[in-house]
Amino acid sequence: MRGYASPERRAEAIASVVVAILLLVAAESKESYGFYVVLRLVCTAGAVYWALRAYQEGLWGWIWAFATVALLMNPFIPIRMQRKDWQSIDLWMGVLLLSWSGYWLLRRVPQAPAERADGTDAPGELADSKAADHQIELVDVKAISVYCRHLAKEWWKGEQRQVAICDTCNSPVLCDDGFLNDTYLQCDSCFTPSSAPSEALQELREDPDYFGETTLADARRFVGMRPRH
């Protein structure tokens, strides 16, 4: 798994860019009344959607920003202003959406650092792992699952919210659940070492860095230092 935005996030960002372009068009030109009615509906629905997504991510500043947009643009209880005032608002909202789209694409879930048994940061020592890549077995898949679950639990300790979202399928991930895979939080269904170990094993054998450049080595080290019962 590489450090790129998921297809769902890209689709969301593209849709927001399209709406931003429509807002910029509205700010610079005179369109029909129907165009503005549809634009207000789209902006209201989009603002409500993004406010919910921001809530799931714990982004309180963006929640208030999108809630304000929804109230301002709603066509059900319209706010009356002069056209020149709306042009300025459309311009600023277009810029806001473009900024949000870029932020949404580039945002990463913070990853908890791997540590040695003595508490010091563990460097990405890949030499031994690379030499043994041809010996990758299901036990390595299990190690990655255990390790990424540990990273998720460590990440949750710094969160105040009780629900996050899966960066792959956008489904809810409850507190202390999920897997922190590279820079992505994933649910049980999307994280193949947990949901489809055989498939994950094949992916690892084809590309030992599939789940992150140091994930395999760090997982082996993490499981190796855990007490055995």
What would your notes on this structure say?
This protein has 229 residues and is mainly alpha-helical. The protein folds into 2 domains: 7-106; 127-225, no CATH class. 59% of the residues lie in helices and 5% in strands. It contains 9 helices and 4 strands. The strands form 2 sheets. The chain has a two-stranded antiparallel sheet with strand order 1-2. Helix 1 (7-28) runs antiparallel to helix 4 (83-106). The two termini are 32 Å apart. Residues 109-133 and 225-229 have low confidence and may be disordered.
How many beta-strand runs? 4
* Strand order in space, largest sheet: 1-2
The description of the largest β-sheet is:
2 strands, antiparallel
Overall mean confidence score, pLDDT: 78
Tell me the overall shape. elongated
Search tags:
single chain, 59% helix, 9 helices, 4 strands, elongated, disordered C terminus, two-stranded antiparallel ribbon, 229 residues, 2 domains, mainly alpha
Question: How would you summarize this macromolecular structure in one to three sentences?
Answer:
This protein has 229 residues and is mainly alpha-helical.
SSE diagram, text form:
Elements: H1 7-28, H2 33-57, H3 60-73, H4 83-106, H5 127-131, H6 138-157, E1 163-165, E2 172-174, E3 179-181, E4 184-186, H7 192-195, H8 197-206, H9 215-225
Antiparallel strand pairs: 1-2, 3-4
Helix pairs in contact: 1-2, 1-4, 2-3, 6-8, 6-9
